[in-house]
Amino acid sequence: MSIDYQTFNCDLCLQVGNTPLVRLDRLDWARRVAPVAVYAKAEWFNPSGSVKDRAALSIIRAAEADGRLTHDKIILDATSGNMGIAYAMLGAALGYRVRLVMPRNVSPERKFILRAYGAEMIFTDPMLGGNEAIRKAQEMNDAEPERYFYANQYDNDANWQAHYHTTAEEIWRQTEGRITHFVTGLGTSGTFVGTGRRLRELNPNIRLISLQPDSAVNAIEGWKYMPTAILPKIYDQTLADENLEIETEAAQEMAIRLAREQGLFVSPSAGAAAVGALQVAERVRQTAGAGVIVTVFADAGYKYMSETFWPQA
Length: 313
What we know:
By secondary structure, the chain is of the alpha/beta class. The protein is built from 10 helices and 10 strands.
């Protein structure tokens, strides 16, 4: 279902999307793979600071359109942080209460931001990870379905459709149709699935490469290790031409390098996306000689400043 955001009276909503495409050309590694060009969508330009604004707005608007979301209901979902912040921002702008279930060990910065927006938080055992937050949110909705609009970002088609209608079209336009490879991480999988499906329609020869952590125990916030995760229903396992695994340490090191060498202060997941994109670029350089690689930097580094790898740098 395609939602026309222009039909809704919400100035903040109209600021979602149309983020810049930034070329990674200052890193030694990026220069080595020339003439392969590596670009990243700078998703922290969205109003709440992350790519999740796209999916949250799409989910809310689709639910408003079909009557599932009314102002007497509470928006409920499980989140590791960014999607919750997007819900909280939009909830404040549109007049909805927001209740979020998340592991207790989410960063202090995320908790401060959510409190500022007025969202309610319910914490789960951090040792059980995001799966436990999902189970708790489902349990709450099952107990009082009339009280909640359970957004269920992992199974909601409006998630991937947001990227099908916006992210993919922006990338196609910004690269003037020259993109050869799309490389991005898997969390709910909405960014990869929605963007990948549309790009493949625009050019069936575009290669789609998904990224994930190299183990269930990792510190790449927002990404899932699919072999042990509760698989999102929106995840299309047949879509990727290839899946790459990224180490936490490599992601953190790249986040530091991006700040110092490229002037981009980004999250560990953005660092991981850069690692994967540059690995693909190196192979393209060796085989095809040229190409245009696009990845997604989900958010900036400001919500991760309490993580210890920054001072250790």
